[in-house]
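Weekly structure sync, notes
Attendees: PL (lead), two postdocs, one rotation student
Agenda item 3: pending single-chain targets
PL asked that the sequence for the first pending target be pasted directly into the notes so everyone works from the same version. It is reproduced below exactly as submitted, 307 residues in total.
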Amino acid sequence: MTVVPNWKPKPWIAVVLNIIVAPLGLVYAGKPRWAGIFFVTTSTIVMLAFFRAFGGLSDAIMGVVQIAAVIVGIILAYRAAKTASERIRPWYTRWYSLLAICGAFAVAIIAFRACVYEPYKIPSTAMAPTTAIGSRVIVQKFGYGHFSTLGLKFGSRPISAPLHRGDIIVFEFPVNPAEDYIKRIVGLPGDRVVYRDKHVFVNGVDTRGRQLDDYLHPDLPKYSQRFLDKLDDTTFATLQDKDKIKLVPNDFAFRDHCVYTDYDVQCDVPAGNYFVMGDNRDNSYDSRYWGFVRADRIIGKVVKIID
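Predicted structure, written out during the meeting:
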């Protein structure tokens, strides 16, 4: 008769596992239900923090809350292992099971970010006043055929979801595809876009609406003029400075589709490409300078902005 030795989890291993991948230490300590509850709780805290659901709490305070949650998880894993009684070792506590659980979570998270939705943080003022530095946006990935996340690209397919004038998109920067940019679609394939005297004309229609109150930049002691613009059914605010800005374009693909003069820019958007601009018109490096965004470089469309 085979004798199966009793097993007792080691507290230090539970702690190390929980530090590496919380709440793996609780699984190892024989508390899979605790691990599930802890995972759901901490994931909820992280999501609520991202969506700014806690009102005025700063990112620093939320960071402290998340660190406290990790510490609580470590303490729970240590105590669970310390007080566990000897028994036949459960299958889910073995190294290969723990590795499989960890791998499954990683694959699920990566697949969700690459194919469904992915969060981004705004790094500049180019899209002000729509977004500010530090704003969060949720980008819809499905339907746009660009399966990538965390610097990894897994494949691509043609766009199947609609794109409209006025949509905000995230895309690979044509000058350096390793960088992700966020801009608003102004011109669709086949459109004629003209930028003249700080007005944007799409197929002969001026997108400029009425003037709003001046905008005080939160990061600079500076005011900019603010206007209400419209592209198809999308209404949004844009900023511009009073000083004249000289546009110095780069050399780019389909450069012959654009004409630059001393007083305007005229571009015919080629098939399979898009003309994009930032809402902060005089402080945005966009299609006026480096040309068009190819359809296969579009990562996804912004579906939610979190201030």
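Discussion points:
- The mean pLDDT is 90.
- DSSP finds six helices and 17 strands in the chain.
Action: rotation student to compare against the earlier draft before next sync.
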